[in-house]
From TrEMBL:
Annotated source species: Amylocarpus encephaloides
Keyword terms: Disulfide bond, Glycoprotein, Glycosidase, Hydrolase, Lectin, Secreted, Signal
Family named by the database record: Belongs to the glycosyl hydrolase 27 family.
Signal peptide coordinates: 1-21
Biological function: Hydrolyzes a variety of simple alpha-D-galactoside as well as more complex molecules such as oligosaccharides and polysaccharides.
Catalytic activity: Hydrolysis of terminal, non-reducing alpha-D-galactose residues in alpha-D-galactosides, including galactose oligosaccharides, galactomannans and galactolipids
Keyword Nucleotide-binding recorded: no
Broad class of the protein's primary localization: secreted
Catalytic activity, EC: 3.2.1.22
Subcellular location: Secreted
Main enzyme class: hydrolase
PROSITE patterns: RICIN_B_LECTIN
PANTHER family in the record: ALPHA-GALACTOSIDASE A-RELATED (PTHR11452:SF91), ALPHA-GALACTOSIDASE/ALPHA-N-ACETYLGALACTOSAMINIDASE (PTHR11452)
Record's protein name: Alpha-galactosidase
Amino acid sequence: MALSLTRWLLAATAVLPQVSGSILSPTPPMGFNNWSAFMCGLNESIFIETAHSMVDNGLLAAGYNRINLDDCWSTMERATNGSMVVDTEKFPRGLPWLTKYLKSLGFIPGIYTDAGLKSCGGYPGAYGYEEIDARDFASWGFDFLKLDGCNMPTGTQAEYKQVYGKWHKILSSLPKPMAFSESAPAYFAEAANLTDWYAVMEWVPEYGQLARHSRDTLVFNSTLYWPDITGWDSILFNYGQEIRLARFQKPGYYNDPDFLIVDHFDLTMDEKRSHFAIWSALSAPLIISAWIPGFSKADFEYLTNKDIIAVNQDKLVFQSTVVSQDENWDVLTKSLSNGDRLLTIINKGKSTASYSVSFERIGLTTDQHVRVKDLWSGKSNVAKNRVTATSIPSHGTAILRLSAVHKSLGRVIPTGKVFNTFSLTTLTASSAGLTWGSSTGVDAQVWQALDDTTIRPLADSRQCLTESGRGKVELTHCNKKLGGQQWDYLYSGNLRSLSSKNCLTESKDHGVVMEKCLYLDNNQVFALPSGVEVVKD
Ligand SMILES: *[C@@H]1O[C@H](CO)[C@@H](O)[C@H](O)[C@H]1NC(C)=O
Ligand SMILES: *[C@@H]1O[C@H](CO)[C@@H](O)[C@H](O)[C@H]1NC(C)=O
Ligand SMILES: *[C@@H]1O[C@H](CO)[C@@H](O)[C@H](O)[C@H]1NC(C)=O
Ligand SMILES: *[C@@H]1O[C@H](CO)[C@@H](O)[C@H](O)[C@H]1NC(C)=O
Ligand SMILES: CC(=O)N[C@H]1CO[C@H](CO)[C@@H](O)[C@@H]1O
């Protein structure tokens, strides 16, 4: 994706979703796109060599079955009949030949265009040519379209919605519907006012199968786009955007934190493996953008880890949500379709260390032994009350699958951070009362969201988050008879009191207060642990 060419300076969940056979992409897409490694240097031989390498080294068999072209595949002008024209220096045998060849190997080919007047790289945009381009892409044999959003005529949120909506209509009415990757949200990310970003996030799941919510992961040569950051910084940055948006993901729609840039020149092996493990825990698309024929045996090995891919492709496709964060550690969890629980621990620190998490924090209520499988080593052991991952290397990620030794894991309570997805402050229960604070990973920042729609701090689960009138919120003893202790988590990200219909709000001085619900306001949009029912209204 060529977003960064023009934009780099910018400074759920629900009850078990229905998995229907008619969903275009019931699990996250996996495959290859040449952008991060090749940018505009793409050509036929790169795709052919890549495809063969993916077959020979087991990537296709592991599920990486898409090969997508990015920007710069065409000439600079359209033909007189309005069609895009392939650059025959880059693709001497043309695109229908290429798609046929890729399909003969077992791949699904994808193509790129831009919703605006010009692509991010300056090639013809599709604005006003939507029907012609969709027809051509389909007739050339493509089954997947990535639609960037550079150079829109006016750039308003409403305009993006209208144009992406138009594409949705066209693509879904083709004889063979095309998977639709939408870059629209990325153009509204990182703003001082996130209302438009949130608004776009609300409609992209209705129109397509995946959406790029924020900036590009670093291209191979990062110095061109985002000086002075490392590949690891870029991975954590996009992860940091993704975790704000878990409520939108569902079977058939995936939040896309962008490509796996696994051959970025400064990544260590531990960082590459983390990149893959984190994207898998998020059930994010796994689209490798790297020079695959140049991979080492070890690269192919970790990228084809069956247990981790199974987590990525789990049919619930929950995005793991954050249990806790501190300076050195991020802990994530989610449920898997067979009732197992996934625990992911990221070591952001500078040294190898062990980390231990209580069952409670993972949402488990069982007092029994639980089987813990380390998905990197494939080894299992049993644990009771807490899980400890030992020797996690600096910038490494432990990814553990918890399952019942006997019947089932028992009741699982959605548990984790409640945070403002604009300011990133975390709901904190201190002795002085409630505040929005920075993350330190303490129990006072880990919350349980119960079926009765109460919200309780892990530090003392007899206490409930309570709206106590006059705009105040406090922790008071849980009591079903009291009003003000029940909350709806809305699709908008609002936490709305059932009794007053007002919304939880972060005030200017980080106070936890109640105010009238506003439209996708910076101070009222929150992320909650996965498993909490999301109410659309
Ligand atoms: C495609 O690009 C690669 C890398 O830049 C180059 O080695 C190769 O010769 C090119 N192939 C064609 C057909 O231009
Ligand atoms: C449009 O023109 C191009 C270039 O002359 C040609 O290859 C293509 O087949 C034409 N498309 C249609 C639908 O006629
Ligand atoms: C944020 O943007 C929205 C949509 O453009 C606008 O309605 C709202 O007033 C803005 N909020 C602030 C605080 O500027
Ligand atoms: C990236 O590109 C710039 C400009 O072409 C060049 O000076 C620099 O050495 C390149 N860096 C890497 C890591 O390839
Ligand atoms: C990693 C890699 O092979 N990068 C290539 C990306 O594409 C450019 C342009 O063709 C090449 O110069 C790089 O070598």
